[in-house]
Amino acid sequence: xxxxxxxxKMNKAEIKEKINTEIEKTxxxxxxxxxxxxxxxxxxxxxxxxRMDAINNKSVTESALRQAEExxxxxxxxxxxxxxDNFGKCVQCNQPIPLGRILxxxxxxxxxxxxx
Length: 116
Description:
The protein is mainly alpha-helical. It has one domain (5-115): Four Helix Bundle (Hemerythrin (Met), subunit A). The protein has helices at 5-10, 12-36, 48-81, 99-104, 112-115. The longest helix has 34 residues, at 48-81. The two termini are 18 Å apart. 9% of the residues are buried.
């Protein structure tokens, strides 16, 4: 269901609140990932296999950290765009993005069809 421009304006406060909530959650996740991705000390006696697991887990955590930082950047950008006339429009097809998608993934700049 696409919402008319008037309905989107009425929900901008709700959208801003959702974006701010997502920003705070993402900042907490980033802090956790940074803590988990600290280097494995070579003098820690955890065994060779355990050390390999720790290094692998660190790589996975670093990837998740990069994704979370990218999401935070997108959320901050979207927060600044909420009051613009182009907010809520797909950057590819220029059609309205459903409000449900905006509330579920506030960092989305594409409608579902163009995001595929």
